[in-house]
Design brief:
Elements lengths: L1 H7 L5 E2 L20 E3 L4 E5 L8 H20 L4 E4 L7 H13 L8 E2 L6 E2 L2 H13 L1
Parallel strand pairs: 3-4
Antiparallel strand pairs: 1-2, 2-3, 5-6
This protein binds zinc ion.
């Protein structure tokens, strides 16, 4: 879901990046790898999906790992964004807001090619809306 979002928006990412583990000594074990790393902005994105797990023991263990990782990021001055299950309903809104908080600037819109009319489009949701209004006429 988060990966799809990055792909749709033309945001380059590494999933569970191992290449940077050499530079970032804290990320040597599987559990401590960041979910996503955006190389263009040097930003880690963590999706803490199991925070809402109904299994209490799993949840507690997960929250402990989450806190440990967050502390490591802060201690090493690694910029990161936290996403939660509740953010998925409006991922674009939450990600853009959290991105701005972490980076200090807005996520730049990336031009995408519309599959229907094959032109470059900056605001794809708006463009899709335009398509649907066009069809109704
Ligand atoms: Zn189009």
């Amino acid at each position: 879901m988060v990966a799809d979002y990055f792909t749709r928006n033309g945001i380059a990412y590494y999933y569970e990046a191992t290449t940077m583990a050499n530079d970032w000594f804290i990320f040597k074990s599987k559990i401590s790898k960041p979910d996503f790393f955006l190389p263009q902005c040097n930003l880690v994105v963590e999706y803490w999906g199991l925070v809402d797990s109904p299994d209490a023991r799993l949840r507690n263990e997960y929250v402990r790992t989450m806190r440990w990782k967050m502390a490591q990021y802060r201690r090493n001055n690694i910029r990161f964004v936290s996403l939660y299950h509740s953010n998925l309903s409006n991922l674009d809104y939450y990600f853009r807001r959290k991105f701005r908080e972490a980076m200090g600037f807005d996520l730049a819109p990336v031009a995408q090619i519309c599959p229907t009319c094959h032109i470059q489009v900056l605001d794809m949701p708006l463009h899709i809306k335009w398509h649907s209004s066009f069809r109704q006429r």
